[in-house]
Specification:
The structure is a homodimer. By secondary structure, chain A is an alpha+beta fold. Helix content of chain A is 36%, strand content 24%. Chain A has a three-stranded antiparallel β-sheet. In chain A, strands 5-4-6 form a three-stranded mixed β-sheet. The radius of gyration of chain A is 17 Å and the shape is globular. Chain A starts with a helix and ends with a helix. In chain A, 21% of the residues are buried. Chains A and B meet through β6 and α5 of A and β6 and α5 of B. β6 of chain A pairs antiparallel with β6 of chain B. Chain B binds a DNA duplex through α4.
DNA sequence: AGGTAAAATGCAACCGGGTTGCAGGGCAGA
DNA sequence: TCTGCCCTGCAACCCGGTTGCATTTTACCT
C-alpha cells in the first residue's frame, strides 16, 4: 500500500472522467472508494468534520454528473455509491438491485441479482430502473445477537 | 352514480380499517379513489385549497398506517396511492412496479409486471421490495406531439 | 515569473417537504 | 348535560437540498 501510488491512481480516475483533481475531490473520492455501502452527504460531512457542506454537495453533484457515482433515495435522503466502469458523463447504468438492511442501516449493491427478466407492458419505454429491497442482509443474518 | 351511496361505501371502507370517518377523511378518501396516479401532499393541498396542510398530512399518515394507502418516494417527494384490498394495519403488499412517466409526470402502478422471478443471494431476507422505473408511459407514447 | 480568466471553494441564506407541540372544537359515551 | 378523547388548525421547527455571491485557488498564456 503506497499512499502516493493511490493518489496517482485516483488522480487518473478523475482525469478520465474529465474532472479536475483538486484536493477536496481527491479526499472525497478516496473516502467513497473505501465505502462498502451507500453514504449520504451528512455521512461524508461527519467524516470530514472540517469540510464545507456545500463544497461536498457540489463535489458529489459533479461526480454524479460525470459518471463517477450514482445516487439513490433512501427514506428521504440521497445516498451515493461508486459507479461501474461503464458509466460516463450523463450516462448511468445503475440497473442493479440496492439492498437496504434495516438492522445495520447500510445500503449495498447486489449486482448478482438478475433483473434482465423484467419486461413491461407494450407502450411503455423505460429510461431508468430503480430497484431496491429492504430487510436483513447476509452479514446481519449471520450475527444474530 | 349516487353520491349518498358512495359516501356510505366510503364510510364502510374507513370503518373496515378502523378509522373514524370524519368529513376531512372522507373527502380525502374520495379524492384518492378518483386518482389514476400517485399524488403528493402538495397535490391534495392544491385540490382542497381550503384544507389545512397538517391535517391532510396526518390524514395520510393515518391512512398509510391503517393500510388504506401506501407511499412511494418520487424524487424527494412522498406520493400516495390506494392499497390493494389485502393491506391492513401495518401490513402492506406493495410489491409491484411503480412507473414514473417523465412526460406527464404521473406515477402509476403496473401490477401486471411479474416480479416473482426475483431471487436474492443466500443470507438476505427481504421485508419489502421497492420497484420503480421511469420513462414514457403508454398514453404519452401514443400521443407524440 | 507575472498576469489573467476560469474554476473551485466557503459563507450565508433560502426553500420546501416533513414533522411536532399545543390549544381549541366537536363528537360520543356516560 | 357533563366529561374526556380524538380530530383539527395554527405556529413553529427541523433538516436536506439548493442557489447567489464574494473569495481563493488553479490553469494557462506571455
Amino acid at each position: 500500500m503506497n499512499a502516493g501510488q493511490n493518489d496517482e491512481r485516483n488522480v487518473q480516475i478523475l482525469l478520465n472522467k474529465e474532472i479536475q483533481p483538486t484536493a477536496m475531490r481527491l479526499l472525497t473520492l478516496e473516502y467513497l472508494l473505501e465505502q462498502q455501502a451507500a453514504v449520504s452527504l451528512a455521512d461524508i460531512e461527519l467524516h470530514f468534520h472540517k469540510a464545507d457542506r456545500i463544497t461536498l454537495y457540489r463535489t458529489l453533484k459533479t461526480f454524479e454528473q460525470k459518471g463517477v457515482i450514482h445516487s439513490i433515495q433512501e427514506q428521504q435522503v440521497t445516498k451515493y455509491l461508486l459507479c461501474d466502469e461503464s458509466c460516463a458523463t450523463g450516462i448511468h447504468h445503475d440497473d442493479h438491485l440496492h439492498f437496504f438492511c434495516t438492522k445495520c442501516r447500510n445500503t449495498t449493491c447486489l449486482h448478482q441479482v438478475d433483473l434482465s427478466v423484467m419486461s413491461l407492458p407494450p407502450g411503455f419505454s423505460v429510461v431508468q430502473w430503480h430497484f431496491s429491497a429492504s430487510g436483513i442482509c447476509d452479514r446481519c443474518a449471520g450475527t444474530m445477537q
